[in-house]
Amino acid sequence: MIGILMFFVALLLLLLGFPVAFTFGGVALIFGVLSEGWDLFAFMPFRIYSIMQNVVLMAVPLFIFMGILLQKTQLAEQLLESMGRLFGSMRGGLAVSTILVGALLAASTGVVGASVVAMGVISLPVMLRYGYNRSLACGSICGAGTLGQIIPPSIVLIILGDVLGLPVGDLFQAALIPGLALVGVYVVYVLIFAYARPEAAPPIPFEQDDSSRIKHFVDALRAIIPPLLLIIVVLGSIFAGIATPTESSALGVVGAILLALLYGKFSWKMLYATALETVKITAMVFAILLGATAFSMAFTYTGGDLIVEEVLLQLPGEKWGFLIFSMAIILLLGFFIDFVEISFIVVPILSPIAEAMGISLLWFAILIAMNLQTSFLTPPFGFSLFYLKGVAPPEVRTVDIYRGVIPFILMQVSIVVSILVFPDLYGLR
Questions:
Q1: For the chain, give me the number of helices (H) and strands (E)?
Q2: Per-residue pLDDT tens digits for 34-54
């Protein structure tokens, strides 16, 4: 019972705004020492050492470095400008461009905050100027920005691979089809919305002759091909079995530096700033991991895992009851806490039960990853909503953003349900 109490105390402190790593570590220390004594943490140094030696987790700082470096090369700006020229003349074209750019940024940078901010600064004012519905514009940007959570190389998938003991390369391959399916659903929704309400997503009246169209097409190719080649090198090397995810992340860093040189944006000052930012983000992730490790130890030794297992094994519907319940819990927690906390705290509790029920952990991981994506969109604490509000023009209200993301949340949930019911369609199970 102490373990369950500890979990809810930690959740309450997180909701009150206490730092994640210190909350996990502090709650674990207090409850663990009071219930089991100091000996409970005798092996903690060995666990920390094993985390620091984990080769899989080395990919985390490298992919973060790659993403930040590409962000500083103004990749998003170039892609948005080129895509806007290509698709802007059709109804909903700017919103479609935003979604496609979001998918490319997801596969190359994977930095959700940077993607949302960049698209919010560049694409949102343009859409508003041409009379786009505010909710549609905001929803498209937020939805596209969160694609970095599921489209490889995704930090979420690397963390889940470590937590569940699955090869990260297998997770990348398994996540590709669901990620592309989500992009397709987004685009279809925007096109239907645009044709149902033409005034809400009007075309941009470009005055172009044949030569300017060709020029815009060539410019678009110049903007798209370099990052596309980088994506092919990084993901292709993993899928072909040539490199491990850690090795491909190193390839990605080299490719990002070459792209910065190609775009004329490289400088030693930018490299230093990128490295510094990478260290800060990586330190935060690993601090949360260490706190979560202590929390997991205390939770297990106080018998919390046994209580949870007993309750979940008695759910009606057996494995289906467990899957529906666990997805509902993760979705609910995503309203209040970040995907990192859910990955390190909730998933280790659920995964042994899933394995005991004969559920494929790969299938379970993709369901979780798709579900965790909603944590960036769901009000009131969805990070994408705050990122966009921070850079949106004054006329864009918070209610416009909330209203805009609801259809995209529903689309994400529908994809999760389809993976749950028809896993074979996605090559899972």
A1: 20, 0
A2: 777 777 777 788 878 887 777
φ, ψ of residue 165 to 5 degrees: the values are 70, 35
Question: For the packed helices 168-196 and 361-373, what is the interaxial angle rounded to 10 degrees?
Answer: 40
The dihedral built from the CA positions of residue 17, 332, 101 and 166, taken in this order, carries a sign that is positive
Task: Give me the amino acid identity at 357.
Answer: M
Mean pLDDT of the chain: 82
CB 104 within 8 A of CB 148: no
| Residue keyed to tokens 């209200």 | 397
Q: Are 227 and 259 in contact (CB under 8 A)?
A: yes
Report angle CA 373, 378, 382 to the nearest 5 degrees. Answer: 85
Cα–Cα distance, 66 to 110 (Å, whole number): 9
Closest residue by Cα to residue 248 from 62, 20, 88: 62
Choose from 91-100, 218-227, 371-380 the range with maximum mean pLDDT. 91-100
What average pLDDT score do residues 75-79 get?
74
Quote the domain boundaries for residue 53.
2-426
| Contact by Cβ (8 Å): 172, 124 | no
> In this predicted model, what pLDDT tens digit does every residue of 363-389 receive, in sequence order?
999 999 988 888 778 776 677 787 788
